[in-house]
Write a sequence for this structure.
């Protein structure tokens, strides 16, 4: 079986290459081998609907969905935690009233998912999925439990650093992003082929939340801040807000 | 400012992303509804059972829709956006309207376990305008990967992540 040492050597061989995005062709992440396009993407000018993002509103999302800790009769186990920040476009403008979705493992590193058979306990009081809409200034905020790291089968003794999956929309279709937020100082970073598929360390750091004592609530929860910058918008701020 | 890089949706996205009715932009019983469906295939031609497809499209009148309600559909409001996970054989389908307007295509986003960042593509209606500058610039065999095949009650669109007939994926200027 492939060992961590094998994977770490493959990671080292590809490290440091420039690029703001993960390398889609990244053999250390074994599942990518048959699932990455071999051809370069074709450059296109966004047209029609691509200049707009779908609209979401309070009809779609209840405010209560931003709290992942009160979906069940009891309190979930683990470190109660607020994750908050702003969603910004590439020019630093807030992405207002837009959908943010998250999903994650519980404090023991187990997902509420049939395919996760890792022998860590499920928490009957924690499902691990949430949604919210950003405020006018782009702020999102979730109350959740800090997820644990968990094993997977990419190679022998493979473990993922603790993370929360984030799904984001911008003001344009072209800004669509699904990514993962990580916690500072995780000892598994260097070993993880998914995190290391972003071979530029500066770009990788853009996925790190920061502990923020101002977000921490006295005698209740710790606080993390993570601002999310999307790629640039193709529309100018002065264009009228009416779709064609 | 450094944009946040993408990361794979992983194997457990069903916990957070798909939702009931996500693939029904229009109730299938609507006489004007069409089925947009196909398969997501890997480099060996096998179906990808853990992919997620989103479509975003204009209405039949060609207008961009600005209506919320995609996550909790009321059965009457066309929002232009849908999401579905693939089945065990890699297949997916949406019930929707054919988009109208000068450039009639479905804007498609593809996510999957094993795919480190999302992919963008376009599913054009059959027989697109031969003068369309984007399509015209592609070699014919590659262009064909972006064009839906007509079916009795809809459109067929396969997404090949790799290999012969690999789908054309887009990077936006």
């Amino acid at each position: 079986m492939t060992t961590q040492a094998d994977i770490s050597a493959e990671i080292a061989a590809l490290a440091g290459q420039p690029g703001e995005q993960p390398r889609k062709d990244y053999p250390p992440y074994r599942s990518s081998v048959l699932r990455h396009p071999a051809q370069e993407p074709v450059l296109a000018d966004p047209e029609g609907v691509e200049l707009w993002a779908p609209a979401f509103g309070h009809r779609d999302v209840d405010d209560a969905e931003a709290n992942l800790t009160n979906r069940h009769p009891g309190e979930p186990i683990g470190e109660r935690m607020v994750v908050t920040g702003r969603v910004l476009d590439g020019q630093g403008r807030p992405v207002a009233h837009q959908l943010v979705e998250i999903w994650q493992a519980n404090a023991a590193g187990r997902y509420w998912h049939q395919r996760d058979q890792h022998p860590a306990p499920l928490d009957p009081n924690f499902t691990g999925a949430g949604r919210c809409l950003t405020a006018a200034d782009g702020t999102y905020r979730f109350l959740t439990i800090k997820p644990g790291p968990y094993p997977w089968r990419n190679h022998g003794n493979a473990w993922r650093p603790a993370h929360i999956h984030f799904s984001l929309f911008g003001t344009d279709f072209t800004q669509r992003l699904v990514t993962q937020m990580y916690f500072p100082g995780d000892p598994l970073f260097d070993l993880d082929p998914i995190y290391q598929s972003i071979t530029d360390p500066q770009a990788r750091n853009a996925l790190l939340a920061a502990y923020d004592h101002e977000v921490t609530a006295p005698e209740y929860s710790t606080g993390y801040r993570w601002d999310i910058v999307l790629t640039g918008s193709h529309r100018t701020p002065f264009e009228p807000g009416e779709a064609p | 400012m450094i944009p946040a890089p993408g990361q794979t949706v992983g194997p457990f996205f069903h916990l957070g992303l798909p939702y009931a009715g996500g693939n029904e932009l229009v109730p299938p019983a609507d006489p004007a509804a069409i089925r947009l469906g196909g398969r997501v295939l890997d480099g060996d031609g096998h179906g990808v059972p853990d992919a997620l497809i989103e479509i975003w499209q204009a209405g039949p009148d060609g207008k961009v829709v600005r209506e919320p309600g995609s996550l909790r559909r009321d059965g009457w409001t066309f929002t232009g956006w849908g999401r579905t996970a693939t089945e065990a054989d890699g297949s997916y389908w949406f019930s929707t309207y054919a988009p109208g307007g000068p450039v009639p295509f479905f804007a498609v986003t593809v996510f999957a376990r094993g795919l480190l960042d999302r992919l963008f593509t376009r599913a054009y209606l059959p027989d697109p305008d031969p003068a369309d500058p984007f399509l015209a610039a592609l070699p014919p065999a590659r262009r064909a990967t972006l064009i839906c095949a007509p079916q009795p009650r809809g459109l067929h669109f396969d997404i090949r992540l790799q290999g012969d007939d690999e789908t054309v994926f887009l990077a936006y200027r």
About this structure: Chain B has a mean pLDDT of 97. Residues 106 and 123 of chain B are 5 Å apart (CA to CA).
